Amino acid sequence: MTVKKICCIGAGYVGGPTMAVIAKQCPDIQVTVVDLNEARIAAWNDQDVNKIPVYEPGLSDIVAEARGRNLFFSTEVDKAIDEADMIFISVNTPTKTYGAGKGQAADLKWIELCARQIARVSTTDKIVVEKSTLPVRTASTLRDILHHTGNGVRFQILSNPEFLAEGTAVEDLLEPDRVLIGGDQDEEGKTAIEALVNVYSRWVPRERILTTNVWSSELSKLTANAFLAQRVSSINALSELCEHTEAEINEVARAIGTDSRIGPKFLKASVGFGGSCFQKDILNLVYIARSYGLTEVADYWEQVIIMNDHQKKRFANKIIRALYNTVNGKKIAFLGWAFKKDTNDTRESAAIYVADHLLYEQAQVAVYDPKVVEQQVYIDLDYLATRSTEENKTLVTVQNDPYEACKDAHAVAILTEWDEFKDYDWQRIYDSMLKPAKIFDGRNLLDKKKLEEIGFQVHAIGS
Ligand SMILES: NC(=O)C1=CN([C@@H]2O[C@H](COP(=O)(O)OP(=O)(O)OC[C@H]3O[C@@H](n4cnc5c(N)ncnc54)[C@H](O)[C@@H]3O)[C@@H](O)[C@H]2O)C=CC1
Ligand SMILES: O=C(O)[C@H]1O[C@H](OP(=O)(O)OP(=O)(O)OC[C@H]2O[C@@H](n3ccc(=O)[nH]c3=O)[C@H](O)[C@@H]2O)[C@H](O)[C@@H](O)[C@@H]1O
């Protein structure tokens, strides 16, 4: 079967970039990305491609090339579903905030709504692809809904989890380590798998396209994120030990990373991992394991989250301690608010939690981030519901100029590893700060020796 029309439900950080790349690489396939969020679709359609809602290096060029040719963004969900022969579901699957599984299980409300909508409007056979990250066995729910329409339309369900990382989405999509496709192992299932393999194989070497049964594919996505996050928590755990023993975490990371069995990636100690997925997916894994009565398995993975929470809190406490145990009324400049560099995404960013902890102690926080807009900072803090919106507005300012953010500050904290921070005029920043001027480098980004020569007191992670 040759795919001619693709519909993707969900125009977010995954749906937008993945579909833009499919459209770029497959000019003969019409790709329509739909979303209920009108403002988001309007932004994807903005004449000025620099105003698309997801900031990713290289993405605006791809959108400019394909949009209007074979890439479309629309709010007409029913129409796009009915016209497509392959439908990707790429909607959000956040942690449940209510009811059974609150705080751990994935909220599959939006997934189920999509399945019901597909069941309701489809008049021709479809391949439905799980692109969202889902608990293992979700395909059985989709199957139950889609196979009981009674209108004779046939559906095949595939799992095709996405492994892109934000900030490098375009290169990850153009040159993925692997593409994973899970499907039923009968004839119809294999035909559906092959149809999707044929889309990716236009640009991904065939040997990098792995095919499995649906359940392995669903579980592999949660597992990959759990392993990656576990590495960060492992190195962060040791960063604390380094701070007590004069060992240097960067040196330890290099020493272990050169062992080819361990490998050098994902060993950067930090203020803690953030992002929309690591925490949510591990909590989901923990919940699934518990639901099967696997207490030891659940406890094992939960520790990754416990360690991460500890690291964020530890960083905030370190600032408070170094500022003589009181930050009340003291200005602390935050360089970075996004959860990592090269993205405007702030979901679960460590910066939010560090700020919240300092605000609890009545600090004055001045935030500068090259890509995060002012309103987002307040939305993130208000979401925690720790204090009133007015109080957040009083205690936190958002600056467009990093030098302004650092002026008259008692301390500067690096929360995101934006490259530009390395090139700032640190002498100028030092001169404008209160003394002793302190830097808390939550990313081990800056040149500690140079800063100390200027006169800063530098506190790095694991050093
Ligand atoms: N953000 C990332 O880097 C990655 C995310 N994922 C997974 O991909 C999924 C999507 O994540 P994001 O793109 O970050 O989420 P997002 O929140 O940026 O985008 C989801 C979009 O789906 C839309 N939506 C929800 N229900 C809808 C419906 N019934 N009809 C039409 N539109 C609907 C929302 O309005 C929203 O714009 C999640 O399951 C996530 O775990 C997987 C890999 C990477
Ligand atoms: O499912 C997802 O959403 C995605 O989650 C992560 O991607 P992402 O969260 O975008 O970014 P990462 O590069 O993984 O970074 C996650 C967090 O860990 C932190 N990190 C990462 C690496 C490291 O060595 N140290 C460290 O603190 C980052 O600063 C960031 O806060 C995975 O890397 C992707 O493969 C996956 O598709």
TrEMBL record:
It is an enzyme of class 1 (oxidoreductase). The keyword NAD applies. Keywords: NAD, Oxidoreductase. It catalyses: UDP-alpha-D-glucose + 2 NAD(+) + H2O = UDP-alpha-D-glucuronate + 2 NADH + 3 H(+). Residues 333-448 form the UDP-glucose/GDP-mannose dehydrogenase C-terminal domain. PANTHER family: UDP-GLUCOSE 6-DEHYDROGENASE, UDP-GLUCOSE DEHYDROGENASE/UDP-MANNAC DEHYDROGENASE. This is UDP-glucose 6-dehydrogenase. It comes from Olivibacter jilunii. The lineage of its organism: Bacteria, Pseudomonadati, Bacteroidota, Sphingobacteriia, Sphingobacteriales.
